[in-house]
Amino acid sequence: MADQFDNSPLIKSIFRDSSERMEFFHKKLESEGVLRGIIGPRDVDILWERHIFNSAALLPYIKAAAGQVSKKGGSGKKAAVGDIGSGGGFPGIVLASTLPDISFFLIEPMERRCEWLSEVIDELDLVNTQVVRARTEELISYKKAVNGVSGAQYRGDRKQKRNPGCRLKRNGKNSYNRNQDFIGNPKLDHNHEAVFKQELAWGQEPVWDREPAPNREPAWNQGLARSQKPDRSREAASEQDNGSSFDSFKRENPHFMGFDIVTCRAVAPMSKLSGMALPLLKRHGELIALKGKSAQSELNKAEKEMKKNYAVSWKVEEASVAEGLEPTHVVTVVVR
């Protein structure tokens, strides 16, 4: 049985210039998705409405949030979106295909799904998209290690903490360097030797800018790095994604401060999702998640957990993709 939305004018209406990409994505899912364990057998005939159109409900929300990032950071500032639990590419592939001016990082721990995502990225020529094979816990730990603090995220309204990894060696004794800026550059007296003991996951010593130029934007605010498009044949994709894509991400983003936006679809209830997604956000970042009809109930139950992870506002909206399609629900959570 064919999908009722095959060749529908809705495809062009919703995806515009990226409609051909979405049609190719649909065909790939239809022909390979079940065999490779990406979708269930019952989903083959309802791919457009259940998965692709449903993911498209996030488009105006992601676009608006990314616009705010560009407005605050300047016209050259490119928003970075982390799609956690990307799976078969929902919503990450759908969003990345339609929003080429935004960087997308598809976070997925399973090898076979990472291989699938890498193939799709290559075949759709999505140069704004990168697969990161990792669990959210690994990314959160990496973000903490880079920041040099034990909390989920540094906040300006909390008491500043010195970086415990920096010690000043003086007369054979270790002491805190009193000229150490918070997660910044050590202003060292030339007679003293700085001993940095940060254990960075990628095995590199931290590099500090001794005298940052005035009005220069810090490296971690210049957007997440995106390596040049790699060779993503099946063999190359397997070699890259078998645990090494996270290492590559760390090498390319040594000052990782989090994503501007985190998105997801059908990952976990809000009480659990809050601890997975909110710590991955930059300051004033936003979680934009697709949810079902129980979204408001989930938010009510998760209020304590959201506040614990620095959420300052949250809401649920009913999102309609097009006339005749069942609306979905979008949860947005902003952190301070």
From TrEMBL:
EC class name: transferase
GO CC term, one of those recorded: cytosol
Region (Disordered): 153-187, 208-249
Pfam families referenced in this protein's UniProt entry, alphabetically: GidB
Keywords: Cytoplasm, Methyltransferase, rRNA processing, S-adenosyl-L-methionine, Transferase
Positions annotated to bind S-adenosyl-L-methionine: G85, F90, R265
Location within or outside the cell: Cytoplasm
Biased composition (Basic and acidic residues): 228-237
Primary location class: cytoplasm
Keyword Electron transport: no
Bias (Polar residues): 173-182
Biased composition (Basic residues): 158-172
EC number: 2.1.1.-
Domain of life: Bacteria
Stated name of the protein: Ribosomal RNA small subunit methyltransferase G
Source species of the chain: Scardovia wiggsiae F0424
